[in-house]
Amino acid sequence: MQLLLNAIKSTLQKTKVEKLAAIAAEGGYPVKELIDLSFCPDEQIGFRAAWILEHVYSGYSERFLPQVSYFLAKLPVQTNLSALRHYVKILAFLTNRKASAEVRKMIADYNTDPIVEIVFSWLISDQIPVAVKSHCLNILANLVPKHPWIKDELIETMDFLVDKESIGFFAKVKQIRKQLKRAEKTRSSAKR
Predict the structure, then answer these.
(1) Confidence bin at 191 (pLDDT 50/70/90)
(2) Arithmetic mean of pLDDT, 36-56
(3) Predicted confidence (pLDDT) at residue 107 exceeds the cutoff of 90
(4) Full 3-state SS string of the chain
């Protein structure tokens, strides 16, 4: 872990993040260490570790997948808001209907109740940045097939928040409403 810590003590450019993600994917830095380091008391180090972690997932998901359960277990206790942005982005990818069959099975088999609870709490918190909330909307909408009750709660929450947040949040709400309508049409067609 010391090697990784030394590599991320100073400011990183995106190209260096990509290189470090490639090294992690090759086994140089275990994904579990990146997750653990994202909880570093030095918030900048935690942020950088989470940023690399996101790149490991997006570029080398096969290396990330063995640690999905560990990542999901740690997600609710992530308090570094800069790292949280990367965490929720990863979770939005993990819960997306376009995720691999292996990932969809992992999410289906995992007890996502605590995750749904914390994601809703982040969504309504005044302390959480809008970029995190935007991914929270995706995550909750993505989990509607597993937890149908989320749909009505999410719609109510979006109605409540839409006037309180930025114009960018409003655009995301519009997108999520369309996603929920498409999911409802798909579900209705499947029942026939």
Answers:
(1) low
(2) 95
(3) yes
(4) CHHHHHHCCCCCCHHHHHHHHHHHHCCCCCHHHHHHHCCCCCHHHHHHHHHHHHHHHHHCHHHHHHHHHHHHHHHHHCCCHHHHHHHHHHHHHHHCCCCCHHHHHHHHHCCCHHHHHHHHHHHHCCCCCHHHHHHHHHHHHHCCCCCCCHHHHHHHHHHHHCCCCCHHHHHHHHHHHHHHHHHHHHHHHHHC
Render the burial of 10-26: b for 16+ CB within 10 Å, e for the rest: eebeeeebeebbebbbe
Who contacts 92 (Cβ-Cβ below 8 Å, separation ≥6)?
Answer: 135, 138, 139, 142
Residues in the chain: 192
Residue 133: pLDDT over 90: yes
Q: Does this model's pTM top 0.85?
A: yes
Amino acid identity, position 8:
I
Q: How far apart are CA 60 and CA 78, in angstroms?
A: 23
- Say if residue 1's pLDDT is above 80: no
